[in-house]
Amino acid sequence: MTVLTSVVHGPIMKPASLSRVALPLVFAICALYADGVKAESDLDRPSGYVALMSNYVGRGLSQSVGNPSVQVEVNYYASSGWYAGLDVTTINWVDKVYPGSSVHFELDAYAGYRWIRGDWMVRGYAMRVEFPGHYAPQNPPAQEPGTNELVGFVGWRGLSAKLNYAVSDSYGTPNSRGSYYFDLGAGHGFGEKWYLGAHVARKQPKGRNPQTGVPNDRTAYTAYKVGLTRTLPRDFSVSLEQTWTTAEPELYTLDGYRVAGSHFAVVVLKTF
Asked: Which of 47, 52, 149, 244 has its CA 20 to 30 A from that of 206?
């Protein structure tokens, strides 16, 4: 669901300048399903999916740093409109930003309400993004990247808009409360088995580093994504996804790998 997704930044990716925008959902493993086809079914029982990804790209950034990743999501949509869920995704970026640490998972827990009338769907929810594991002491000290967000989503037919707004410091970046990630999406189905989607989004950090006075918005960027999904028998699907961003390469590089560069990913997903 998150997509969410992690963002790391800084002149040489040091922990003191960490920033990560979660996701729940957009630029998740398969944005075509997180806020699109799958979300429109009005279930009154637990549901979810398991996804295998050649590269976990969330909000334009490779959260797995170019490595394969696995995501599992379980959620419950009540007939009253209330819903809650949890997703777990394997990641690789935290250990590189916090040397000596051992953090391999992202956990997104969320709860909210959705309203559906005809072709319209409106959702609002609160989300906690956590990165459990062992954090080694850093010099200088660095905040852990856990973040609280409020999320709003509006969808009409194949069009959507979603805003993730940080109500805490955003993914380890000091004085960054109020940072947001805004996504616009469009998609269209072809027959019963093909779905083509596209997204454009903006990451907009807020505040200034309290030690250096440098504005956090120096790491702002626009992200783009196109994806083609093919449904398969037994609730499987496969997606081909291409992403790229306008982020400055020197601010988004880990061990020589451009996490905000152009990325291609194959996603195999099984719903249940």
From this structure: 244
Tell me the CATH number at 216.
2.40.160.40
**Neighbour count for residue 89 (Cβ, 10 Å):** 29
Task: Note the pTM of the prediction, 2 decimals.
Answer: 0.84
Whether 7 maps to a domain, the answer reads no
**Residue among 161, 39, 19 at smallest CA distance from 4:** 19
The one-character DSSP state at 59 is: T
Per the domain annotation, does 264 fall within a domain? yes
Domain that holds residue 176: 15-271
As given in the structure block, the two tokens for residue 9 are: 């930044």
DSSP 207: S
pLDDT at 156 over 70: yes
pLDDT of residue 40 exceeding 80, the answer is no
| 8 Å CB contact between 252 and 65 | no
pLDDT for position 2: 35
Q: Left, alpha or beta for 255 (phi > 0: left; psi -120 to 50: alpha)?
A: left
Q: How far apart are CA 65 and CA 185, in angstroms?
A: 25
Angle at 183 between CA 55 and CA 186, to 5 degrees: 85
Residue 5, in any domain of the structure: no
Q: 208: exposed, middle or buried (C-beta count within 10 Å: 0-12, 13-18, 19+)?
A: middle
DSSP letter (8 states) at residue 15: G
How far apart are alpha carbons 173 and 256 in whole angstroms? 22
